[in-house]
Write a structure and sequence with these properties.
Length: 245
């Protein structure tokens, strides 16, 4: 039986692209540009460059220099991340399989790209994600977080197509639900045992929903029940916010 696995790699071209895209991203109460300019103060001048082409040229030049200067270190970091993740890989997918009421008999390969910026996006179309090479929460937590997203979205669309098939996975209630799910699950004992306990684990805008979402999980410990109940809870919250502005 083919196993699920995560392969860690470098991808400078992707890193350059994401740096440009995330300069303007503020989401869930987080300004992602800080994950670029605070890590690399040399790029703070990007804020005053109006031309997108010029911004990309500045990013390209800086990233080429940084990757060349730190090539040996970054390559070693990829190997370290691969080693750290491999220690919990089988256990992670076993625990995830319990939650989603199934284990994959086919197995799937996920790709994790080391990044020199602290944005950490995931890409649902090809099951890949970035992980900041100095991430304070560690590669085990970040990789677990992103793969849970992949599993959650696949499961929700498969089991509740009428509810989710046409919903946006990058914003709105479906995205909210996915992030809150991770915030709940990654604070349960099995997952804390895998990647450790972290303090900064939820978007600021989702904190108000977390208590009820946790109660629903601990009461039922059933993914189908949790999705239905938390979705209704979020719908109510969104409607109330829209009503009162």
């Amino acid at each position: 039986m083919q196993k699920n696995k995560v392969i860690f790699k470098l991808n400078k071209s992707l890193d350059k692209k994401i740096a440009l895209e995330f300069l303007e991203v503020i989401k869930g109460g987080i300004d992602f540009s800080r994950g670029i300019t605070e890590v690399h103060p040399e790029l703070r001048n990007l804020r005053v460059i109006s031309s997108r082409v010029k911004k990309q040229e500045t990013i390209n030049k800086y990233f080429d220099s940084f990757y060349n200067k730190h090539k040996i270190y970054l390559t070693r970091k990829v190997k370290e991340f691969q080693k750290y993740w491999y220690r919990i890989e089988a256990s992670f997918f076993s625990e995830a399989g319990k939650i989603f009421n199934k284990t994959s008999s086919k197995g799937r390969e996920y790709t994790a790209y080391l990044s020199i910026i602290n944005c950490n996006p995931r890409f649902l179309n090809n099951k890949s994600f970035q992980v900041f090479y100095l991430h304070p929460q560690g590669v085990k937590y970040v990789a677990s977080h992103e793969i849970l997203h992949f599993l959650f979205y696949d499961y929700a669309i498969e089991r509740f197509p009428a509810m989710f098939k046409k919903q946006d996975t990058e914003s709105g209630i479906f995205w909210d639900l996915s992030e809150i799910f991770n915030a709940v699950i990654q604070q349960t004992e099995p997952f804390i045992g895998l990647h450790g306990k972290v303090s900064d684990f939820v978007y600021p805008m989702h904190k108000k929903y977390l208590s009820q979402a946790k109660k629903s999980w601990h009461k039922y410990k059933d993914i189908n029940q949790w999705i239905k109940l938390t979705y209704k809870y979020l719908m109510f919250g969104h409607r109330r916010e829209a009503r009162w502005g």
